[in-house]
Amino acid sequence: MKGLGVVILAAGLGKRMNSTLPKVLHPLGGIPLLQRVLRAARSLDPQKIVVVIGHGADEVRRVCGDGNITWVLQARQLGTGHAVRRTEAVWRDFSGDLLILSGDAPMISRRSLESVLREHRKQRATLTLVTATVEKPSGYGRVLRNEKGELAGIVEEIDADESQRRIKEVNAGIYVASSDFLFAALEGLTTRNRQGEYYLPDVARVALRDGKKVKTVEVAEAQEILGVNTREELATMEKALQEKINRKWMEAGVTLRDPQTTYIEEGVAIGRDSVIGPSTHLLGRTVIGERCRIDGNAYVTDARLGNEVHLKFSVVLSGCNIKDHVEVGPFAHLRPGTVLERNVTIGTFVEVKESLVGEGTKANHLAYVGDATVGKETNIGAGTITCNYDGFEKHQTTIGNRVQIGSNTQLVAPVAVGDDAYIGAGSTITKDVPAGMLALSRTEQKNVKGWVKRFRARHKKK
Fold this sequence. Notes:
Elements: E1 3-10, E2 27-28, E3 31-32, H1 33-42, E4 48-53, H2 57-64, E5 70-73, H3 80-85, E6 96-102, H4 110-122, E7 127-133, E8 142-145, E9 151-155, H5 162-165, E10 169-178, H6 179-187, H7 202-209, E11 214-218, H8 231-251, E12 255-256, E13 263-264, E14 269-270, E15 275-276, E16 281-283, E17 287-288, E18 293-294, E19 299-301, E20 304-305, E21 310-311, E22 316-318, E23 321-322, E24 327-328, E25 333-334, E26 339-340, E27 345-353, E28 356-357, E29 362-370, E30 372-374, E31 379-380, E32 385-387, E33 397-399, E34 404-405, E35 410-412, E36 415-417, E37 422-423, E38 428-429, E39 438-439, H9 451-461
Parallel strand pairs: 1-4, 1-6, 4-5, 7-11, 12-15, 13-16, 14-17, 15-18, 16-19, 18-21, 19-22, 20-23, 21-24, 22-25, 23-26, 24-27, 25-27, 26-28, 27-29, 28-30, 30-33, 31-34, 32-35, 33-36, 34-37, 35-38, 37-39
Antiparallel strand pairs: 2-3, 6-10, 7-10, 8-9
Helix pairs in contact: 6-7
């Protein structure tokens, strides 16, 4: 078996994206374009992966630098042929096949790449090009064939005549070449074209001229080879990816009430018989258990939900862990570090952050629980706040089991409330409350006789 190396071209400026972000770092389904191509390349277990970078090189390295990658800088973008030639020194001691991919074509699958490699080696080809038939070939090089249907060459769209532009078979920008042939062929490229660049597809012309065996492999799904050059193309690809992901989950037993408005990233997992409402975003490494219900307009990132969790309308969750039979919302916000044990209820306009809330506890409305540990079967009244920040540091609040906290209570941390304690409504608690006690902090109420009558009389005279 021949050795396999991979070259990924990722040096382009991407002018039509009109962005300060390098084109290959724009996310598709939450993952940068280049990361997707790297994932496909790594699935083949190559001996080495080389990425050619140029525009935004440092940022590309920073974002995509995980794993064993050899970076090669193309300081001046003189074409795809020039980009590959910049890697020659890296492959000096390598003997085998080089797979060349584009960093802005993120949909290529492992299955297709394996098929191309298999055919290349089966045919003992020197060079194999991947092609696809597309209805709208604008922007792609066209595949030229002779009267026998054999490859005659590749012409870039800018250099093509009218008849050539009507060809729908396009060059996918994916190549497999014998390393010894490739770099010799690259030396023979010229810039005699409208862009004044060294075109990588011209190695096919060199191979045909020299009598080498050149093969083409057409991918079954043309969508796999599409590149991203504009925001519109990125949006079109995002939609296609979402349709694929949503279809997968529906086939797996998940109900999507409105697939058109449901956005699910690839790292998400969803249990059977869960129901996802409209305008829901499930992002990152979110895990949804079985028989969960998400009413809609939810934004969930890196959260873990147990079974039979109910997220009511318009909730935001990030980095939290929710156990079975929990209800959240509507209009609740669970921030990172939140853990809700079984049968907890977090209601309307309640925010929880960096807190453990014990089994069966309820905070039904208008509360903030931050940097706290709350026991079982406790009730947190409306308007309750854990005052956890002193301007410099965060402090902990500890609330025991079966505690009743009255409405409009401020718990000034650090403070602890023991089991079975009661906090009177409207209290500001600055000292620990022992178990089983009632804590009150109120000014004395005064009822002033005749005040309303005198007040109204004064205003009537004006």
